[in-house]
Amino acid sequence: MAGPFPVTLLCGLLTATLAGATLNPPAVLSLGREIIRERLTQELNDHDAIAILQQLPLLSTIREKPAGGIPVLGNVVNSILKHIIWLKVTSANILQLHVEPSDEGQGLTVKIPLDMVAGLNTPLVKTIVEIHMETEAQAIIHMNTSERGDAHLVINDCSNSPGSLRVSLLQKLSFLVNPLANTVMGLLVPALPELVKTQLCPVIKAAFEDMQADLLQLVRAPVSLGSDRLQFDFLSPAIKGNVIQLELGAKLLDSNGDVTKQFNKSAVSLTVPYLDSTPFSLTVRQDVVNAAIAALLPPEELVVLLDYVLPELARRLKSTIQVISEQAANQLGPTQLVKILTQETPELLLEEGSAKVAQLIVLEVFATNEAHRPFFTLGIEASSEAQFYTKGDRLMLNFNKISSDRIHLMNSGIGLFNPELLRNSTTEILVSVLLPNENGKLRSGISISIMKAWGFEEASTFLTKDSLVITPASSWTPGLLSSLL
């Protein structure tokens, strides 16, 4: 009997092994710069960022600190500013956002180009003097960890991009107005960066927070699996290059909403592919995919009156049984019955670019539908090719072919025999009965709600050695984002 020291040593080794292992999440949602840019642009529109720019208090700001706060110069400038009736932004546009890795490599830099025209009204001229203003807001997305250890993404640095400010006149002015316009433009140069920071940056931060909230709400939307459902939960974020990765947990719930299986970070491998030019990808760990298939295909018993449903197959089976026992074959009536029991749920086996499903099946043959004891009971180790594909925004799965890899004689009332004699017949029964039944349950597919929500008409899928990866396949319609979320 082993003493306490070996047991303690073994526990220590196991703990050290687990501590050194890489723990992988059940799923990872990777967001490329296109999705980040488009989602944030939409949120800025929803937060009326354009209206904020149009309401910038230009005149009051330049009157507060004229000439850099120098009293003498300030008095001169104030006397000039008295000739201004109003000064306000008459048109504003937010141009296409740019997303790139931050300089320190720990975050993402979002650059928001702003294009504005300000109108200056003065009694010195009858027309409005138009001033063109170009600048760029810059926000840094960082990962922040709270005292409780919860990680989330935040914008904690927002300002005007250095060197991005340009102020110019849109038309030529008279000799009288030029000094006034030049003075105003000179005052706008220090005022605009401050206004971007105090007026626009809070809107940018609020838009990013709402973008995250909308994203997490979409991620947590239940995925229907027959009477069950799969639900993802947010675990933690990461920033890798110009990609945001959301690590997700997962759980399987029954029809009552009770959790039947929970998936957390574990040593189970997960290969997250490089995003490249794809807007986003959802990578799901093999054990989670396996659980989803199991929910769609629970263990069941199929009963078939073979002579009525598949008469040719019934005759071939009788001929095979006649080789084993002529007496048993003569007992087979027109109501001969076959029972197929899937004892366990299918087991998904992934390889790079392909997948198989292994199943343990019990097959019994009865002489008639009134017989209480089967002629024999076979245990079959079967396998099928699993084909994942997409139809629109739905993930589809189909089992192609089925083979009886190993056949075991579990019980026999007609004497011992080599079960290999029944290989062809049993395979035909599984192909004709079990395979259509399982494919019928898989036919409706699994909805990928994130596709339509983000403006994609079609999904695409591929397999790695340990995961299922879902990506967009069709052209992108960014304008659909606001209406579908």
Keywords summarizing the entry:
33% helix, seven-stranded antiparallel β-sheet, 485 residues, eight-stranded antiparallel β-sheet, disordered C terminus, 21 strands, single chain, alpha+beta
Explain how this protein is built:
By secondary structure, the chain is of the alpha+beta class. The protein has 13 helices and 21 strands. The strands form 3 sheets. Strands 1, 8, 9, 10, 11, 12, 20 and 21 form an 8-stranded antiparallel sheet that branches. Strands 13, 14, 15, 16, 17, 18 and 19 form a 7-stranded antiparallel sheet that branches. Strands 2, 3, 4, 5, 6 and 7 form a 6-stranded antiparallel sheet that branches. The model is unreliable at 4-18, 67-74 and 475-485 (pLDDT under 50).
**What class, by secondary structure content?**
alpha+beta
What sort of overall outline do the alpha carbons produce when their principal axes are compared?
rod-shaped
Number of helical regions: 13
Largest sheet: 8 strands, antiparallel
Percent helix: 25-40%
Mean pLDDT: 87
Distance between the termini: 64 Å
Count of distinct strands: 21
Q: Which residues sit in consecutive blocks of at least 5 with pLDDT less than 50? A: 4-18, 67-74, 475-485
Portion in beta strands? 35-45%
Our Rg estimate from Cα atoms comes to 35 Å
